[in-house]
């Protein structure tokens, strides 16, 4: 990480806006409407990679290509998801959130339509890559929108909803994809993304701007046009931040996540583990059609319905995290506060260590391989009722969601003002591996058979079982090796210098002051 004295970006001043223009002062109905439109906008984009599965056989037959080539249609979307947020993250700070949403809606719908009309496999793959890369801009923007409109105390239900769509959309994607793949052309499957994206895009066109800096600059321009005194604000004194320097934002957006990834051992270790589990999930989901069609002779449409099982697991994961793990963390923090209040001197540890966020990772590291072994053992014979292997998807989906939520909050505690960049680094590694994993999943099942391939996958999954415990025990040591991660001095009550240093080296993306968009 460059020295903050030589490579810095000033933290933008969050302006005090008049109530009528302050997104947090809008009516609850208006704010929730905007949030739900964005929620629905994320769904078709996030579903793009797996919706494609229902049309793979038709595409392979029409264009006479190998299985490897046709599965690149899944991998290249994930590749776009990996690089898109890095490239487009500064856009909302430069131009506001609304222009980013509009541009994303137009380009995603256009390239999805191009995919549906592709005359050859080359065009299809290029359009898929572009749809993923340009659509991914919404992933680096929606968190800022929520922070613009809602206080941390208000965000709880919304964080749960957005987590569910981010985790559940790729899981549930094969359901409509397979249903359509049995009865209509693959081009209609690709067209569904275009139609859905365009329909939500029409609503996006009329959403108001929520980024405070952009609103303040717009008010200032309007005032300068209408009044001779360009420094007098509308009704109240409005402190308007200068527009961020474009070069600084682009450089930091591209380089900061990568620097953190390769210079912070804790970021690299957790990202590789998350990518490992994420890749196993993609292989497992690619194996679902092979197992259920060969063992249980299910049609394509019915095979798609089997993906509801891990999606139910995603729902349970959200409920368990917010209903148990988050509440347990809050209760432990309150007990620590109460204990500290009784002391006649400042306690050296006024807040819980980041590792207090990791019990969900420990449970996840057990649930995922348990679900995989369950699937391997139960899916070998048609004499075993189909509900038995189907239920194995629940612990897998639940484990994936618990892992995602636990690591996200762990990162926020480790890097209070760098969390957006750390999450971008994690997303980059995860999606880069997911680019290639689906390409060898089906050949593995065809060569080894459903039972052997599933047991191999489950056995590999067991390698991740110790991860949560290792992080819990040695996480502090890894933090000590990570120069930018939260050290013991964060808990010594003398936070000023460390936090000020971080604030000098990273401008918060889509947050108000030093608030953390923590779940």
Automatic annotation (TrEMBL):
> Ranges for the Major facilitator superfamily (MFS) profile domain?
32-479
Q: Where is the region Disordered?
A: 485-519
Q: Which InterPro entries match?
A: MFS, MFS_dom, MFS_trans_sf
Localisation per UniProt entry: Membrane
- Can you tell me where the transmembrane regions are? 32-53, 65-88, 100-119, 125-146, 188-207, 266-285, 305-325, 358-377, 383-403, 415-433, 453-474
Q: Which UniProt keywords apply?
A: Membrane, Transmembrane, Transmembrane helix, Transport
Keyword Transmembrane: yes or no? yes
Q: Which GO terms describe its cellular component?
A: plasma membrane
Q: Where is the composition biased (Basic and acidic residues)?
A: 485-504
An example of a GO molecular function for this protein is:
transmembrane transporter activity
Show the Pfam families listed in the entry. Answer: MFS_1
- Which protein is depicted? MFS general substrate transporter
UniProt membrane topology term = Multi-pass membrane protein
Domain of life of the source: Eukaryota
What PANTHER family does its record include? Answer: MAJOR FACILITATOR SUPERFAMILY (PTHR23502), POLYAMINE TRANSPORTER 2-RELATED (PTHR23502:SF132)
Q: What is its main location?
A: membrane
């Amino acid at each position: 990480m460059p020295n903050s004295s030589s490579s810095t970006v000033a933290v933008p001043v969050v302006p005090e806006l008049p109530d009528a223009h302050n997104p947090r002062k809008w009516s609850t109905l208006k704010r929730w409407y905007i949030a739900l439109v964005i929620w629905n906008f994320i769904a078709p984009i996030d579903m793009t990679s797996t919706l494609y599965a229902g049309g793979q056989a038709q595409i392979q037959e029409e264009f006479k290509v190998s299985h490897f080539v046709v599965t690149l249609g899944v991998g290249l979307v994930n590749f776009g998801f990996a690089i898109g947020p890095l490239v487009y993250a500064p856009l909302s700070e430069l131009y506001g959130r609304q222009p980013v949403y509009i541009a994303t809606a137009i380009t995603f719908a256009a390239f999805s339509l191009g995919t549906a009309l592709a005359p050859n496999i080359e065009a299809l793959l290029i359009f898929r890559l572009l749809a993923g890369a340009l659509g991914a801009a919404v992933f680096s923007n929606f968190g800022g929108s929520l922070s613009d409109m809602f206080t941390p105390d208000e965000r709880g239900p919304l964080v749960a909803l957005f987590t569910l769509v981010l985790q559940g959309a790729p899981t549930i994607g094969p359901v409509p994809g397979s249903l359509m793949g049995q009865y209509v052309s693959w081009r209609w499957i690709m067209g569904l993304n275009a139609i859905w994206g365009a329909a939500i895009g029409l609503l996006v066109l009329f959403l108001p701007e929520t980024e405070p800096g952009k609103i303040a600059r717009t008010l200032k321009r309007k005032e300068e046009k209408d009044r001779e005194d360009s420094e007098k604000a509308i009704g109240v004194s409005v402190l308007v931040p200068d527009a961020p320097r474009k070069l600084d934002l682009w450089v930091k957006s591209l380089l900061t996540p990568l620097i953190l990834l390769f210079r912070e051992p804790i970021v690299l270790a957790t990202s590789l583990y998350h990518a490992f589990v994420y890749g196993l999930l993609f292989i497992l989901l690619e194996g679902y059609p092979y197992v259920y069609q060969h063992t249980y002779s299910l049609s394509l449409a019915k095979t798609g319905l089997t993906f509801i099982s891990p999606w139910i697991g995603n729902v349970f994961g959200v409920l368990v995290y917010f209903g148990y793990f988050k509440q347990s963390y809050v209760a432990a923090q309150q007990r620590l506060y109460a204990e500290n209040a009784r002391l006649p001197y400042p306690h050296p540890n006024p807040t819980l260590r980041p590792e207090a966020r990791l019990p969900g990772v420990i449970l996840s590291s057990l649930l995922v391989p348990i679900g995989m072994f369950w699937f391997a053992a139960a899916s070998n014979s048609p004499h075993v009722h189909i509900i038995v292997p189907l239920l194995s998807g629940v612990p897998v989906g639940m484990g994936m969601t618990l892992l995602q939520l636990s690591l996200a909050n762990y990162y926020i505690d480790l890097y209070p003002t760098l969390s957006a960049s750390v999450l971008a680094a994690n997303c980059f590694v995860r999606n880069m591996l997911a680019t290639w994993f689906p390409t060898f999943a089906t050949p593995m099942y065809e060569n080894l058979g459903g039972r052997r391939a599933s047991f191999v996958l489950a056995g590999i999954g067991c390698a991740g079982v110790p991860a949560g415990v290792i992080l819990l025990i040695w996480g502090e040591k890894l933090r000590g090796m990570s120069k930018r991660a939260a050290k013991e001095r964060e808990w010594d009550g003398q936070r000023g210098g460390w936090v000020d240093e971080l604030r000098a080296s990273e401008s918060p993306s889509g947050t108000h002051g030093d608030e953390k968009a923590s779940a």
